[in-house]
Every structure is written in C-alpha cells, then in structure tokens.
C-alpha cells in the first residue's frame, strides 16, 4: 500500500505555480503524503510503501539516476516540458494526470538497464561522426522532393576516420567508419532511428551500429535504402552497416572524437560504454504497450556482425585516398583467387589432353549436327582457366599473368585448329550442317553470349561456393564450336568458313575477357586507375571486331523483317491464289535473294512468277530476286 511520495525537484521549481498545483493534486486527489527532495539528495525509501516522483529536466534526471544506480527505490517520471528525452525513452505520457496514474500502477514498474557513456547515463542514443540519416526516423514522413534533396546533400559528404573497438569479451576491431550509432533500448512508439526493431530494456546489452560504405556504389545503395526504403532490421541491414551487441564497449581513435549524447555535444579521445544490468526500478509509461514481464537473463555471448567492414589495407586507403567507385575485395579472398589463377594460366599436359579431346568431340558433333555431343565437348573444354586469368591480368596490369595466359590460349588455339583440320581432312564429308552454318555469321547477339559468359566465369572464380564447372561450360559455348568450325574450314580450304567462324571466336574471346575484367573490377579486385590501360586496349579491340557484327546484325534484322512480312502470305496472280513460304533470305548481294516455296491449284507461268516478284517487291519496298520451288495441288 503506497502511503508516501518523495517528490524530487530543484529549488527553482519549488516556487512555480505548476509545482504547487502538482503537490495539491497528489495530496487532495490521491490522498498521499508528499516529502520534497532535491535532485542531488540520496533517497533511501521503503519500496513497499512509497515511490519517488522525479520532476526534473533531462540533465538533472541523469544526475539523479547516477546517484541511485542499483538502488531498490521505485522511480516514476513526470513530464516537465524540459525532460523530453527521458519521457520519450520510457514511454511516459506528456499529460501529468496520466503520468501520475501510471506511477501508481505497480504493474508498470520494471527493472531496467542503464547505458553509461564515460560514466554518464544515456536515454536515447549516442552518435559518433555522421551516420547519414540512420538516426533520423522523420525521413519517412518527408515529401519526396525533400528526400531527394537530402539524398544528394549526403551523397557529396562522405568522409572516414579510424576507430578501434574492444568488447566485453576482448574482441578487437580496427576499422574506418563514417559514423556510429549506439542504442541501449528501442521501442516502437519512440523510434528515432531507421532500425525497425525493438531492443529490450533488460537484455544487458548495448547495440552499436557502425556505418562504413567501402565504395561509392555501396554508399549510394545505403542512402537509397535510408531515404526511399526506410525499413531496417538486424536481419536485413545493408552490408555497409556492422553491428556489435555487447555489455561493454571501448572506442578509441587517433584523434579526439566529437559526438552527441542525447543530442548534447561532447568531445573525447576515448569513449567507454557500459550497461548497468537492472540498474533502476522505473515505472514505464502507457506508450510502451508490451511491458517486460520479468527480468531476462543476460546472454553471455556477444553479437558481432562486422565481416563486411573494412580491415587491413582497406582502412588506410579509405582514410588517405578517394573512396573507390567499386568495393575492394578482402585481402584473404584476393590472395586465394590470385594464387589459383596463376596456376590456371599455366600450360600443362592435362590441359592439352582435354583440349584435344574436346576439339575432336566438338568436331564430331558438328558433322553429326548433334547439339548434345557439342555440349559434351563444352563440358570437357579447359578454356575457362586461362581466359579468366587473362581477365585478371588485364584488370590488375599483371604482365606475367597476361603472358602466361596468352601463351596457354595460343597453344589451345593451335591445338584445336590442328586436330579439327586433320580430323576434317580425313572425314569423307563436305556438306555444311546447320550447326556449322550457325557459326559463320556472327552478330551482336553472339557478343552478348560472350559478355554474359565472361561475367559468369569471373563471378564463379571469385566465389568459392559457386560451381566453376558451370561457368566453364558457358565460356566453352562461345569458344570451342567456332574454333572447331574454323578447323573444318581449313580442312576444306574454304576461306568464307574460316573468316566467319574465326571472327566469331575472336569476338567471343575479346568479349569474355573484357566482361570478366569489368566483373573483377566491380567485385573490387583492382582499383580503376590500375585497370584503365588494359581495359582501354581490350575495348578498342572489341570495338573493331564489333563493326562487322553490327553489319551482320543489321542484316539479321532485315531478314527477320522480310520473313515476318512474307511468310504464309497469299497473293492473287491473274485470278490464281498463290500461297508462299519463305525458306531463306540471302542478303550477301546488293539485291536480296529470296528462296521461296509456292503452293497453288494451277501451274504458274513465267509471267505469273514475274507478277509475283513485283507484288513481293512492292510489299517489302525493295527489289528482290526469287528462287522459286513450285508446288501445284490437283483436286
């Protein structure tokens, strides 16, 4: 049974009308005895028969809390107009009458943790540096134009500084960051940040969010998420944010840190953060819907999610250099990949055996016109290793890697041409199959195959969890069949076959190398300034070989246009109905040559065919030459 209230005030408040009205309300309406105390007094009260009403500003409440850590008194907070941080943090109503009702509700009292920053209690958050909107929940309510404006303001304001973190379990992390946000607890009604998740009053842990975008692209993605998505939880944070959840955290830097505690500016070279477990017994306000039922047991394990934060050399580069456009790969990942690619670039007996077998199998499949056999040859082909190594050599300007890769690829090309040529020369067949013909007129679509294959190859090699054999097949698709067709052309002595298929091979080789190099660049395996020279040379070669591809693609578009306009078309010639089907469109000469098949009930004369030619020319707005196969239906 509550009999007495300790009302904690300052001497200045004692003379105000609001204070006198409050005392009168407590005495007359609630029939309770009131004893005045000042904020710096130490109160030792019977928690069963009394409680402490705190009627102070935020700063004075901090002093009062600090003096009563781990005491057993029941504390309730009343709104004064000067303690917005406190009442927001603990869900207190802004109405004094409602706050008094909650203070008298014994079910609302709970033991809560207190976060100390350099010995001072913290109610909302601690912000070190610039967290670029992570601490601003009001972004969600702003107009779109305002969001866009603030987005670009932040976009031009990115800077890093070094931090060293030491947790309660002696985990140490040295990294570079733009800013850090630290919370003790967080509730939905009072969320002042972009983390849509509640953190307990009683888990014995603080929550540190470390912002460190390691590239311009990752920074843009983070800003876009903050300003236009605005919903984060611990499970879907952008990779630019690391999380440390611990009971104690020491933060140091090479220079004094300017930071805010509950929006009050402070500066220090060292920041000591500590959670005092179940430090105070406080009445939580009605704005907190889910009251803690009982004290929770502190989880002894710390939560550390910092794998994507910069470490090692990357820290120094972020502090002293311009932030890169693309993220740089971790040193350990790079060392493993680079070592693997050095081995892949070297010529070996295993490589030559697989090259011979895949070439012979592909050539056989081409003569058979069998796609499954050609696919089998692609699986055998060992070309991914030297090509991806060449791409890495280009992007990192590694001359030795480039030299080894080119030598191995040269051996592969000579081997494939030699064995496919000898195989063709000994084969008593001389007809082009559709599978061969499909490799003779390369166009921009073939280049797209090469580009996608190169991306797949580079990505598969950079990610250990991706099966490299799958990407190897994609690369072999673009290289082994055209190279085998070139060997067939040599065996037959056909220049047109050699030119068309080898152009496709060179196009694919250059396209794969360039796209794989760009993929490695995006994945962070080389700075852009180092990759410029190799990428420029590769791009020039690609541009040169793309010219005939564009010409060929233009012809393909024209072929498709003619086919779509004429196929299954019916003409009336001299009162005779003639159905036509276009078998092939040959655009090798100035006037298109159309191979068509006609179907009619009456035999067509030469005059009819001339009229048909004129009708077709008018229909497609171009002169044509017809090669006609006639079919007459007799009923």
From TrEMBL:
The keyword Transmembrane applies. It comes from the Bacteria. Coiled coil: none annotated. The keyword Isomerase does not apply. Keywords: Membrane, Transmembrane, Transmembrane helix. InterPro entries: ATP-NAD_kinase_N (IPR017438), DUF389 (IPR005240), NAD/diacylglycerol_kinase_sf (IPR016064). SUPFAM superfamilies: NAD kinase/diacylglycerol kinase-like. The chain crosses the membrane at residues 208-229, 347-367, 373-397, 409-428, 440-460, 472-492, 498-523, 535-557. Pfam families: DUF389. PANTHER family: AT15442P-RELATED. This is TIGR00341 family protein. It comes from Sulfurimonas hongkongensis.
